[in-house]
Amino acid sequence: MLTVVVLVLLSLVGPLMTASLPNVTVDHQDGNLQFKMPNAPGLTEVFFNYMLSSLSNMVPQTAQATQGSDGTWQHKVENANMNVGEQVQFSVFAMSGSMGRVQSPVTSWTNAPSPTTAPNTAPNTAPTTAPTTSTPRTMTTLGPRVPSAVVFRDDFNGVALDRNDWRMEVSMYGGMNWEFQVYTNQDSNVYLKGGNLFLKPTLTVDDPKFDENFLTQGTMDVAAIWGVCTNSGNYGCSREGRYGLLPPIMSGKVTTFPAIKYGTVEVRARIPKGDWIWPAIWMLPKSNKYGGWPRSGEIDIMETRGNAVARSADGVNHGINEISSTLHWGASSTTNHYDLTHAEKAMPSGDWHSAFHTWKLTWTADSIVTTVDGEEILRVTLPPSGGFYAKGNMTGQNPWASGTDMAPFDEEFFLILNVAVGGTVGFFPDDFDYGVEKPWKNDSPSAAADYWARRSDWEKTWSGDNTAMEIDYIEMRHL
């Protein structure tokens, strides 16, 4: 799914203050990782942002600390199982009655036979990679790679999503796109029915917990409402309506714990229809081996706009009649070469919503191909030498020098399914003709509020489960 780094709108939740926080003690005993930080006057909430390679999904985590009887702020990562010499990178985000919102610098700690106290004394900005959390879990070790062997398959025939295989996102993060939804874990947004998985956007005010007044005056504390917050980036865990409209939409996003490197990924699904709905089937790396986005890559198997009409100036319709596939890669967010690895496929007539279709990624050590119902969408091959560095005619330091020619697409990636709504990064361009006036401008400081104010224009295009992405099955298979 298209991800663009933008400036954080601090007005959404108030300013982030810079101040020193007490030193954090890190300890690893009996396979468990423990963070402890002494209390400081005025602290009301503390979050530990951390990343360590021994976690199964190998992505940045965020966890809210609890306060012990001695006043220290603590969090234990069970089954971290760090080896001697492995590192954990961490920072602290805290709420203080006297200082406001405080962020510490990112610090590294190396597991050694004895505990080490990691210094944490100077203010800094937030980590460049958005924090994400999931419940730590122990993964079953897979056997040797077997050609054409199924790594993971789910036909969704149970009564609930198997949480051993799937992680639900619960956050207002918005993918650095400032989308208008909050992802939840409740049954109205993520559910199984008739042997299919549904990811469905709903109106926040249709939930009995909320009303119109809440959107402008309430506080959306994600962990308090839904029991967990999985991503604190972009103030994804807590926002106040007085600083800007709270998410007017609730929706669903799930990611697989199983991951794959080289093989096939197949998803049979019916994609949603409705104005300003943005469904995606995509993949991210388990480990950001080559650095933050897009240095470590992103594979977008399918994206589309739910609008029936989304015409560019040349008259081409880029709505629900068209799907696209994209690879994101580059040395930085401002040098993303996705335009070299992007393709679109339009329906000759009708749209992609009206029936189920099968999307497939075929990924080898020298090519990536996406198809729908056996017809090619995107084919990416490499030059004879130099890999993606040469493909992008890049200069300067090669960010993938330590990898193969296929780098950054030579590491394990996990699958993501989600239904977003709106956003301000340009996926819904201001200059397209949508048949109706677009409710917001992408540079508007009140985009979500503008979108919500025009609810009567777009709500009539949302009809029952037609707004949901309905997934029949997914399968990952080795080559």
TrEMBL record:
GO molecular function, one term: hydrolase activity, hydrolyzing O-glycosyl compounds
A Gene Ontology BP annotation from the UniProt entry: carbohydrate metabolic process
Compositional bias annotation for Low complexity: 107-141
InterPro entries for this protein: Beta-glucanase-like, ConA-like_dom_sf, Glycosyl_Hydrlase_16
Family in the record: Belongs to the glycosyl hydrolase 16 family.
SUPFAM superfamilies in UniProt: Concanavalin A-like lectins/glucanases
One Pfam family, short name: Glyco_hydro_16
Organism: Littorina saxatilis
Keyword Signal: yes
PROSITE patterns: GH16_2
Gene3D superfamilies in UniProt: 2.60.120.200
Residues annotated as domain GH16: 107-479
Secretion signal, residue range per the UniProt entry: 1-18
Name of the protein described by the UniProt record: GH16 domain-containing protein
Chain segments carrying region Disordered: 104-142
Keyword vocabulary terms for this entry: Signal
Keyword Signal attributed: yes
